[in-house]
Design brief:
By secondary structure, the protein is mostly helical. It contains two helices and no strands. This is Sec-independent protein translocase protein TatA.
């Protein structure tokens, strides 16, 4: 089952579950928070990489 990876219908089911759990009103705020967290993580990883290069 895991050998084939994720099929498109797996992602569709996952999207439906997320909408049901969080509700459509909270999804934009959640996506914004995740995006901000990823930007912070990316900048911190870049800073660490630059620091180790010295």
């Amino acid at each position: 089952m895991l050998r084939n990876g994720l099929e498109p219908w797996h992602l569709l089911i996952l999207a439906v579950v997320v909408v049901v759990l969080f509700g459509s009103k909270k999804l934009p705020d959640t996506a914004r928070s995740v995006g901000k967290s990823l930007r912070i993580l990316k900048s911190e990883a870049k800073a660490m990489r630059d620091e180790n290069a010295r």
